[in-house]
What we know:
The structure holds 2 protein chains of 2 kinds.
Chain A: H1 3-9, H2 12-22, H3 29-48, H4 51-67, H5 78-98, H6 129-133, H7 135-147, H8 151-162, H9 167-174, H10 178-200, H11 206-217, H12 219-228
Chain B: H1 4-9, H2 11-15, H3 21-33, H4 35-53, H5 61-77
Amino acid sequence: MNQDQATQSGPPDDLALIDRVLAGDARSFEPLVRRYERRVFRVTLAVLGNVEDAEDAMQDAFIKAFRHLSQFRREARFTTWLTRIAVNEALQKRQARKGMVSLDDSRGVEGQSEERFMPRRFESWRADPEKLYGKQELRRLIEAAIQSLPAIYREVLILRDVEEMSAEEAAEAIGITVSALKSRLLRARLMVREALAASLEQPPTLGKKMLHAAGDMGTALAMRLMRAAGK
Amino acid sequence: MMECKDVLANLSNYVDGEVSAELRMALEEHVAKCRRCHVVFDTTEKALKIILDVEPFEVPLAVSARLYTRLEKILSDA
């Protein structure tokens, strides 16, 4: 196998395993599953929003990939092909579950309204939230915050900021333009920040609150406030 | 200087390092002087870092086990 093939199709191991499966060694598919289990799970969860449905879609995606392995074209990376299958399985499941396409899910809608998302919380965050919450609890907080996002924002956030796919990969996986992806991602990031802020902000002292309010409102009003508080 | 709403519109690209040097300078100039934008930029970056650090949405053990059980049947029949 030459270098070009390796860099184009991902780690050489993927192709070697695929070759073995196609030659009749079905069990060589299992290490491929282990390698991409988390990717497929996160992608189906991103689209479906709950673990139970994601589990079903994940199983179906791997089985479909196994059955159609001879159709995988080596110009693309295996992970890209597999991700596409996983997204399609998840979308089909979502469609079937709902019975009709809502505006929220529509592939045609490039983003919600043109309204910008306005942050409302402006306090700094604690330096080390893990000290307060512990890693398990912090993970639960993060997961809950991400799950609370509307579907189209949850999707892009998980693909980009949890699974760390590139913008191009992520856009291609869910079938939107890179530009639409970036626009949704901005909003998704602002929303998740907002969802986490309550749990992660440093508790502000009264003095600090007043100082911040003052800075935001202007000096004259600030002075009135401070006089009223006896400072 | 840039307005807050325009600065915010570039937040995501800035975090990804996808703004021109010129725009980056303009954004950083604003953020240095505007408390609210500073906090939003800072806490967004923090949020993304924490999200990666905690490794959310790992495959639950039971889910993984059921996957391999189902696969086992299919691979052994193949």
